[in-house]
Design brief:
743 residues, Ubiquitin-like (UB roll), 3 domains, six-stranded mixed β-sheet, 41% helix, globular
Length: 743
């Protein structure tokens, strides 16, 4: 050992000599009471008491009070009840050691209660340094005292007659603890001594030497702990101290900052309000911090700080709200379709449902197991449209629809050019990758989120381009891309009824991009040929434009002194009822070439879906009908599927918005209006039936606008269409908006 390393422990020992002498004076009082009953019964040689110079009891009690902070109890300490024992008290002598340094040695030296006299502090350190080295001892997990004692003696047989040790403990997992040193008991130590004799704490970034008083006022041992690192050793040689000046500077800077030393508390919300800004969020944190500081110390300075940061938070809030709505108003000028998305967070009562879904089974029991619930919903979503139009629908082929009325109507009504999918270039794919919304879901493949694709867009764009073009050339849709995850979304009614949930499909990112690029080609070719009053899923069209168009048409009729009768149709499970074979035959009639049809045919073939709820998933189910809600292709295919309805009801005021269909007729008399509306309503019902869709005449709505009471005496209360009675009302709900007759 080099002289510098040896010098430091001896200097520390000299500083503690006075405390050791005091402990030695108290030891005679303890020697008669500390012997463990278990050790006394088994030891062949009883522990002999220490023989230092005796001091008056009053002086010993005073020294005890100075060391431990309270007077020792009188009488035999073992006679005191357990519930009256005072808590352990410590007296510390700090040895400076900077945080973050690597320890090279940790020395622990104990006095044995079997010795005839206490060794001096210097002797303890000398014995610790010279006679023993650092040694690892593995202790049994949850072992009792006897097992621990036996394990120690097996590895250190010399403890029976030497009584001093330096040990470094290690757990069964192999992790060693440099500062958790356990003193080894010799014959005179009880097993309980392992738990109470030594405690090392971290006080103000400095490891402390602890004198621990155990069993009331009976001091059973004395410990010296010296910690030394290579960096501390170098500083000691040059400056005479082991403290790190950089650490001292950091401590001083922390003291000068108000509230720096207080423990930070931060509330984390799942979703911020839309107009939250980083500046406002920081102002809120500062306001809370100084409010807490003022609550602890109600000084004038803290009050001024609290008021200052409260005003800053209020000012930032107003600025954030003003800037948010100004920015949104500018965005809505170019994107009016985002109107409802902008206001929905402020007016909607439907929040994100993170709670578990519970469903009623056929037995009437409430099922709470989310895996079982996922299976129930998957079975429901997969078969909800199985019986619509008949059980034979899924077995029909494209050739079976060659004489279908819709196919004939398309062939005679569509005058456009043929269509085929074109190959993509690298720039298209790269642009689609960069425009991915990282907040959107990404299906079953959790290893490939949108953020990943967006970040490596330039690198993977060439490879994805070749992959997509190969799919187009071969007319094959990869099977893994046809897997989707259903997220059940509650509509209305009883939450425990599975029929009140609809499935929203989430697809993987690589498939989303492929569908998006293909949809752009189809839309670019067919959008001009689509029915002009079909307003869903099209650019420059939205729910707002549909309502404005209808209301303005009705106002124009009123200005022409005409009455208006409106019929709003209702369908059940429209998207889930889509027939694959009929859709393909309609696309053929629209001019899709054979290779393009082959790709769409592969898109429909063997599609797999499963339900996912709060991390629980169902088994994969094969889809035989329906277009995926949530994909790019789904809405486009639905629009092309229902476009020929306008061919079946010519010269009508038919409006198509997704699965919401409206018919209205204007005229001078009730007979003229109702006769025309009944005829068109019958044609609509016939189209629903031929296209394997389920209409609900019981939920049809009818409203008559007659401001001048034309033929008021002929106005009926019902409208009869194909033996279905539709009740007329003074108010109907159209696209989520209540339309009331105010005339």
């Amino acid at each position: 050992m080099d002289p510098t390393t040896q010098k430091i422990p001896h200097e520390c020992a000299d500083r503690l000599s006075h405390t050791a002498d005091v402990i030695a004076c108290l030891s005679p009082m303890a020697s008669t009471t500390i012997a463990s009953p278990a050790i006394s019964a088994t030891s062949s040689t009883p522990a002999s008491p220490f023989q230092p110079n005796l001091v008056p009891v009053s002086t010993a009690r005073a020294e005890h009070a100075r060391l431990f902070g309270y007077q020792p109890p009188s009488g035999n300490p073992r006679s005191q009840p357990n519930n009256e024992r005072r808590p352990l008290r410590t007296n510390c002598v700090n040895l400076p050691y900077s945080r973050g340094q690597t320890l090279t040695r940790t020395f622990v030296c104990l006095a044995s209660s079997t010795s005839n006299q206490l060794p001096t502090p210097a002797e303890r350190v000398t014995l610790a340094l010279n006679n023993f080295g650092g040694k690892k001892v593995e202790f049994p997990r949850n072992g009792n005292g006897t097992q621990v004692h036996q394990c120690i003696v097996e590895q250190f047989p010399q403890l029976d007659h030497r009584g001093y040790s330096i040990l470094r403990t290690t757990s069964e997992s192999g992790r060693s603890r440099d500062l958790m040193q356990i003193p080894m008991p010799s014959a005179g130590f009880s097993v309980d001594y392992l738990k109470s004799v030594l405690e090392i704490r971290e006080l103000n970034s400095t490891f402390s030497m602890i004198l621990l008083q155990s069993h009331h006022y009976c001091v059973k041992s004395y410990a010296v702990v010296v910690t030394l690192s290579s960096q501390a050793k170098e500083r000691y040689e040059t400056t005479g101290t082991t403290s790190d000046p950089r650490e001292d500077s950091r401590k001083e800077s922390k003291k000068r900052i108000p509230g720096k030393n207080s423990k930070k508390k931060k509330r984390v919300r799942e979703n911020d309000i839309p107009y939250m800004t980083p500046e406002w969020k920081q102002a809120i944190r500062d306001k809370r911090k100084f409010a807490v500081q003022f609550a602890k110390d109600r000084s004038l300075e803290n009050f001024e700080l609290k008021r200052k940061y409260r005003n800053i938070a209020t000012r930032e809030r107003r600025k954030a709200i003003k800037a948010y709505w100004y920015r949104k108003s500018e965005e809505l000028k170019s994107k009016p379709s985002e109107f409802f998305n902008t206001f929905r967070p402020f007016i909607s009562t439907k929040t994100k449902d993170t709670n578990a879904i519970c469903l009623k089974t056929e037995d009437g029991e409430v099922e709470k197991d989310q895996t079982v619930v996922a299976e129930l919903l998957a079975g429901h979503f997969n078969t909800v449209a199985a019986n619509i139009g008949g059980n034979h629908i899924t077995s029909l082929t494209e050739n079976d629809h060659r004489n279908h009325s819709s196919v004939k109507a398309i062939e005679s009504g569509y005058k456009g050019n043929k269509f085929h999918f074109k190959e993509f270039n690298k720039e298209e794919v790269q642009c689609a990758l960069k425009n991915l919304n990282v907040r959107k879901s990404y299906g079953w493949d959790v290893t490939a989120p949108p953020k990943l694709f967006k970040g490596v867009a330039e690198g993977i764009a060439p490879s994805l381009t070749r992959l997509y073009n190969n799919c187009i050339d071969l007319g094959e849709w990869p099977s893994e891309w046809k897997k989707g995850e259903w997220t059940p979304v509650f509509k209305k009614g009883d939450r425990q009824d599975k029929s009140n949930y609809r499935p929203i499909t989430s697809l993987i990112c690589v498939d989303k991009i492929f569908e998006h690029l293909l949809s752009k080609q189809v839309t670019r070719h067919y959008d001009p040929a689509l029915y002009h009053r079909m307003t869903a899923y099209r650019k420059q069209h939205s729910c707002e434009t549909t309502l404005l168009m209808l209301i303005e048409d009705w106002r124009s009729a009123v200005d022409r002194k005409e009455l208006v009768t409106i019929l709003s149709a209702d369908m059940s499970k429209a998207f889930d009822s889509l027939s694959y074979s009929l859709t393909l035959k309609k696309l053929d009639a629209y001019g899709f070439n054979s290779s393009s049809l082959e790709l769409i045919r592969s898109f429909f073939d063997s599609r797999l879906n499963r339900v996912k709820i709060n991390g629980h998933t169902s088994e994969w189910r094969i889809m035989e009908r329906g277009c995926p809600q949530g994909s790019s292709f789904g809405p486009l295919l639905w629009n092309m599927f229902q476009n020929d309805m306008a061919f079946h009801i010519p010269d009508s005021n038919l409006t198509l918005y997704a699965d919401d269909h409206q018919l209205y007729v204007t005229g001078k008399t009730y007979e003229e209006v109702e006769s025309t509306l009944v005829t068109q309503g019958q044609q609509a019902l016939l189209w629903y039936r031929d296209n394997f869709l389920l209409a609900n005449p019981d939920k049809f709505q009818s409203l008559t606008i007659n401001p001048r009471n034309i033929d008021a005496d002929k106005k009926g209360s019902v409208l009869t269409i194909a033996n279905d009675v539709i009740r007329k009302t003074e108010e109907i709900k159209l696209l989520g908006v209540n339309i009331e007759n105010i005339y």
